[in-house]
Specification:
40% helix; alpha/beta; globular; 9 helices; six-stranded mixed β-sheet
């Protein structure tokens, strides 16, 4: 049986400060490091051993993966990085406090920017210091593909070619694949596997640092799925994600 494990990066410095992060490259907090190490320990306890790993170009995901593998003593595993696994771009909101944005623009508008399927946040200008056009890690990517803002739909659309051509193809060689990425990019994979509607996926929250296991059929469709955490812990963490945009 094929297994796909999804892990959202551990708590980042901007998660802690309740800031819109997007493509901004922020580090993990100490809690985030511990979440990542615990994810590795949980996989060991479950007897799940990944053979191939994927992650984004952002350090909070890369360092989460590194800590997971270190906890499992599997630092040697092959890893493929792709910008297509990056978080959704929040455009000009990046660096702004979510609760303060709610006070300024209203809860309904901020909720649309955060969690709607097809509404984009205000875009960055091309010459903004936060623009991916000015980041050397994306120098080899066609500018037409680099976002200055994105909706969830945009994020999923740029993710899916990589999911199909790299992640799914890895199962031709490996039985167990680990993907460490971000709340919105991972939701694209979840939406596809669970065949969720646009309305269902915008209400689906992925907590930081909790492994999400999918068991796949021979045709790589979903057979079963479960978070590797108890229900009380899972609910608490999902609620925290859902409430990030609420007023202070």
């Amino acid at each position: 049986m094929k297994k796909l494990i999804l892990v959202r990066h551990g708590q980042s410095e901007w998660n802690l400060k309740n800031l819109f992060t997007g493509w901004t490259d922020v580090d993990l907090t100490e809690q985030g490091i511990q979440e990542a190490k615990q994810a590795g320990k949980t996989l060991l306890q479950e007897g799940i051993e990944p053979q191939m790993c994927f992650t984004s170009y952002l350090k909070r995901a890369i360092k989460t993966l590194n800590n997971i593998l270190d906890a499992m003593n599997m630092d040697y595993l092959p890893v493929e990085k792709s910008w297509r696994l990056n978080e959704k771009s929040y455009g000009d909101l990046q660096g702004k406090n979510k609760a303060e944005a709610t006070e300024k623009f209203g809860e309904e508008q901020v909720l649309l920017w955060r969690r709607s399927f097809d509404v984009q946040a205000p875009a960055l200008s091309a010459d903004d210091a936060r623009s991916p056009y000015n980041d050397k890690r994306y120098a080899g990517v066609d500018r037409a593909e680099l976002p200055l803002t994105e909706s969830l739909q945009d994020c999923i659309n740029r993710l899916m070619p990589f999911y199909t051509d790299h992640i799914l193809k890895a199962f031709e060689k490996y039985d167990t694949v680990l993907v460490v990425a971000h709340g919105n990019s991972l939701r694209g994979i979840v939406k596809t596997l669970k065949q969720m509607s646009n309305e269902e996926i915008i209400k689906f929250n992925i907590p930081t640092g909790i492994p999400y296991l999918f068991e796949l059929n021979d045709d790589l469709s979903m057979k079963s799925d479960r978070f590797l955490a108890d229900e009380a812990t899972l609910k608490k963490l999902m609620d925290e994600v859902a409430n990030q945009g609420k007023k202070k």
